[in-house]
Amino acid sequence: MTAAQIALAVTLPVVFLPLGLAKTAALPFMRQAAAHLGMSPDRYRVIGAREVAGVIGLLLGLVAGPLGVAAAIGLPLLMAAAAGARLRHGDPPMRALPAVVLAHTGICRGDGLRGLTSSEGSPMTRSRRAAYRRQCGRHGRRPHGPCCA
Hints:
The chain is an all-alpha fold. The chain has helices at about 5-25, 30-35, 40-60, 65-90, 95-110, 125-135. The longest helix has 25 residues, at about 65-90. The protein is globular, with a radius of gyration of 21 Å.
């Protein structure tokens, strides 16, 4: 796991945990947001519970890589759905922008899919690296085109 992934795994919970807990507790401003989007408070509580579960997954992902990857997939999907709900409801695109940014940030955290917690990356990455280091027998330099594949 890279330093950037660790930083995102620690930073994203700072954003998602308070919002998820506020939705789960059905605080007045979250009930108002749910009503604005045409959702029941119970449905908004479920969304909040999913955000809290994503936070737990991100934090546990620091120890167990697959959990972090699962959370890093789930949270962007949740945020993409949030952006879609805002746009479908007729909100201006700027109201959906925070959800899009958080989805993108979660995807950046999920970049660990290549090697989960391995610093070397997946076997496919290692083979690509090895192929890049090989010299092309025809040209005597690194592979650069279809003739070198």
